[in-house]
């Protein structure tokens, strides 16, 4: 996004399915950009509301709200980045920082390279690991056992990515709880709040989720689900920074912390850290510990960690400077004739 001689940079969720980037580019250029061009860059929330009003119905009729929200989210991140750049300060300074850092847990652990990635997390000073489960009981039990053997003092969470039926979720949540897993993310296919309540009542397992919930009111209702202790909006899916910031204002009294989901590149990670350090109800930040050049090589000053916590970015805006060599390596030419 361009305004006042500055450029704001955003990131949309495109890492699944493998054609996501092609679809997202078309949605951004042909659906989102014509509605956003010429609007006030100083008011990201107003732009977001305009886009939701115009396009959420398209997503419902298309049967694909996700791609619409993911495209809008990337633009919202760019607008917030632009807002900070135009002000000449880190965006957190405009929102109001609550803390200088936020505790991080390692993710991306399992079902393969479990020991290697757990060792990496320990070497980074992280105190918690989120394991991937939902690959069959034998594989899942081996994953948890490998983490325990590799780093006995590591706190352990688990993410099933909606892999189970309700009955399977009850069975698996029970043994995971007994194995000391502290909370379970997206355990049930369909992610129904009613199923989550019933699962918590049956197993007493604390739950988390929210990365695939679209719309502020839906997220607020989701955060109020009995047994849910972490609501996890994804800045590249859930409405950029605008919707999660509004969600945070509605969390008091729910018993639910805001712990942003993030599993992609550097730009969205910067936005997630800013979000988690500027809301009162913050819990954890997710830090994928697998190799990822679009995260590790793209920004010039990285993601400093201290005592298992990731520090608030100091760059102007959200993103700061991108490494020009990395941009050259990763950049793909698009058809400029499609630009409005």
From TrEMBL:
PANTHER family reported in the protein's UniProt record: D-GALACTONATE DEHYDRATASE, D-GALACTONATE DEHYDRATASE-RELATED
Cited PROSITE patterns: MR_MLE_1 (PS00908), MR_MLE_2 (PS00909)
Pfam families: MR_MLE_C (PF13378), MR_MLE_N (PF02746)
SMART domains: MR_MLE (SM00922)
Alphabetically ordered keywords of this record: Lyase
InterPro entries linked to this entry: DgoD-like (IPR034593), Enolase-like_C_sf (IPR036849), Enolase-like_N (IPR029017), Enolase_C-like (IPR029065), Mandel_Rmase/mucon_lact_enz_CS (IPR018110), Mandelate_racemase_C (IPR013342), Mandelate_racemase_N_dom (IPR013341)
Signal sequence residues: none
Recorded superkingdom: Bacteria
Name this polypeptide is given: Mandelate racemase/muconate lactonizing enzyme family protein
Lineage of the species this protein comes from: Bacteria, Bacillati, Actinomycetota, Actinomycetes, Micrococcales
Residues covered by the Mandelate racemase/muconate lactonizing enzyme C-terminal domain: 111-206
